[in-house]
């Protein structure tokens, strides 16, 4: 087998593995968002009447939950963008310069958008750490 064919097979395997990881993380994030939504409902149901003011602890809990929801929603968008790049055939290419993103980097951070030269390891890696298996 010539080197070009081996490289192409390796890239296809990397893309397939990336899709599997991204889809699994997407499912985990959706499940977390459902749980966070239910938690938010539980806090609100703890208030005795519609006009009653929330105590400081309930307000802090709502703020904390809202922050976690926002983080997960942003991570979902990163994952969905990576899946769209896979579908479009441009996954693994830097969005800035078009260069190939290192495969080891993609294995570590499957939603990565940029090569090392263009500022790799942006928001995607920090957000996806929230739901790393």
Descriptive account of the structure:
- Helices cover 66% and strands 0% of the residues.
- The chain is an all-alpha fold and 133 residues long.
- Helix 1 packs antiparallel against helix 2 (56-88).
- The longest helix has 43 residues, at 3-45.
- It starts with a helix and ends in a 5-residue tail after the last helix.
Our estimate of the beta-strand percent is under 5%
Q: What are the secondary-structure elements, in order, as H or E?
A: HHHH
* Distance between the ends: 36 Å
The coarse overall form would be elongated
Structural class by helix and strand composition: mainly alpha
Radius of gyration: 20 Å
Instruction: Give the number of DSSP strands.
Output: 0
Largest sheet: none
Helix content: 55-70%
Task: List key phrases describing it.
elongated, 4 helices, 133 residues, single chain, mainly alpha
Summarize the structure.
It is built from 4 helices and no strands. With 133 residues, it is mainly α.
Secondary structure: elements and pairs:
Elements: H1 3-45, H2 56-88, H3 103-108, H4 123-128
Helix pairs in contact: 1-2
